[in-house]
Amino acid sequence: MDTDPATPVAENPVLRVPPASPAAAAAYFGASLAFHADVSDVAAALAADGDPGFVVVDTRSTESWDQGHVPGALHLPTAQIPLQAERLLDKSVPVVTYCWGPGCNGATRAALALAQLGFQVKEMLGGFEYWAREGFAYETWEGPHQREADPLTAPVGADDCGC
Question: Is 62 exposed, middle or buried (0-12, 13-18, 19+ CB in 10 A)?
């Protein structure tokens, strides 16, 4: 199809800003993985035999914790990190923080506070929301719970998404 050079071509919104160079993209995405873990990877590491090599920290309020939390997580609300982190956590063990979900940056604030105290830290993307939505078991003040996996967040009938 021929186009008239005088006719303006609609700008593609995806390529309006060109992609980064492969080297810049590799640096960016490599750095992103140094700062983040997803719920599936955290769940797999926790389910494996032995020590996963990190501690999971739920940074939400007591009411939120009681509503549901990752089994084995340590409850350390963000506001308490400056006062309690060095007493409760070992700086030689990486920390994985989480909060409610993608709409909450509480895990990011907690990760910043922990990093400022000298801890190695990653943020669990998706938070408790995606932990539950992907069908992983969780605990509440009433005991253990588990929901069916949401097919929009986890493959039905498969152990992992293949990512």
Answer: exposed
Q: Can you point out the beta strands (E) in the chain?
A: 36-38, 55-58, 74-75, 95-98, 121-125, 138-140, 143-145
Q: How confident is the model at residue 6 (pLDDT cuts 50, 70, 90)?
A: low
pLDDT tens, residue by residue, 29-71: 999 999 999 999 999 999 998 899 999 999 999 999 999 999 9
pLDDT at 8 over 70: no
Per-residue HEC secondary structure of 5-23 comes to CCCCCCCCCCCCCCCCCHH
Max CA separation in the chain (angstroms): 70
Residue 42: phi and psi, rounded to 5, are -65, -45
The mean pLDDT of the chain is 92
Quote the DSSP letter at residue 125: E
CA–CA distance, 152 with 74 (Å, rounded to integer): 28
